[in-house]
Specification:
With about 290 residues, the protein is of the alpha/beta class. It folds into two domains: about 5-210, P-loop containing nucleotide triphosphate hydrolases (Rossmann fold), CATH 3.40.50; about 215-270, Alpha-Beta Plaits, CATH 3.30.70. The chain contains eleven helices and 13 strands. The chain has helices spanning about 45-50, 70-75, 90-100, 110-115, 125-140, 155-170, 185, 205-210, 225-230, 250-260, 275-285; strands at about 5-15, 15-30, 30-35, 60-65, 75-80, 145-150, 175-180, 190-195, 200-205, 215-220, 240, 245, 265-270. A six-stranded mixed beta sheet has the order 5-6-7-3-8-9, sandwiched between helices. It has a four-stranded antiparallel beta sheet with strand order 11-12-10-13, covered by helices on one side. The longest helix is centred in the middle third of the chain and has 16 residues, at about 155-170. It is globular. The two termini are about 40 Å apart.
Length: about 290
Amino acid sequence: MQYLVGARSATIRFGDFTAVDRVDLEVGSGEVVGLLGANGAGKTTLIRMLLGLLIPTRGSVSLFGGRPSRATRRRLGYVPQSLGLYDDLTVGENWAFTTAAFGIAESTLPESVAGYRHELVGDLSLGLKRRLAFAVAFSHDPGLLVLDEPTSGVGPLSSSHLWEDIRASAERGTGVLVTTHNMEEAEQCDRLVVMAEGRVVAAGTLGQVIGDRHVVQVDCADWRGVFAALDGDGLIVQVHGSRLRVPGTPEHVAGLLHRHDLGGDVSAVPANLEEAFVDIVTKASPR
């Protein structure tokens, strides 16, 4: 496969601090690759290297088969966390500037933002700003989309619409690299790359990243009391209706419940992506 963007042992240091450490990553045509990691994991720094905005200290990056350059960047659509819009210009002016920069002779504002043509971008809601940022990124029919937390701060409906656009682009052959903290969104990706402390600590399909990890499920009548007890013992507790899910083994959790004079049916169940992510990142981080 000819990868649209790739990194080979990409490393970048700022003084004595290693922000990205020997990362391998690639995105091919028509696939959506999710880049996951806690704040400070190195995701945005890696993206800036892939775009040629930062030069690797060691290793290499490629964009459309060559070194990142102005020419190769013209073939991608990029939505940074800051959205990359001009707040003191109107929606129409932002659109006109972008299309002119990409050499698009004739272009019409998409229906999703056309009604706000004369509004200053700085006066728009965050959801509308993100909608415009997506429209700008899609304006020149890019071969690759790079989206850094594209749905952060927007509601479920707006998020759903943005992901419909992402999947539709992939179906047309566009490659997509997207960072997200939302595990439900991450499950829509074809492949996942998990970063921690600047390193890739897991990669693969959803099933490969989760692997054979299990968590303990507790079915109980007094879930609030059980939650308080397990939380007080330092376990990460998730509530699913009247059921609780915690890391560990059934024997360990049953022992904790017995110590607190609490009852409940305890069993091992397959982990979900969020639980697997917490386990992977926790084990990868220095103690």
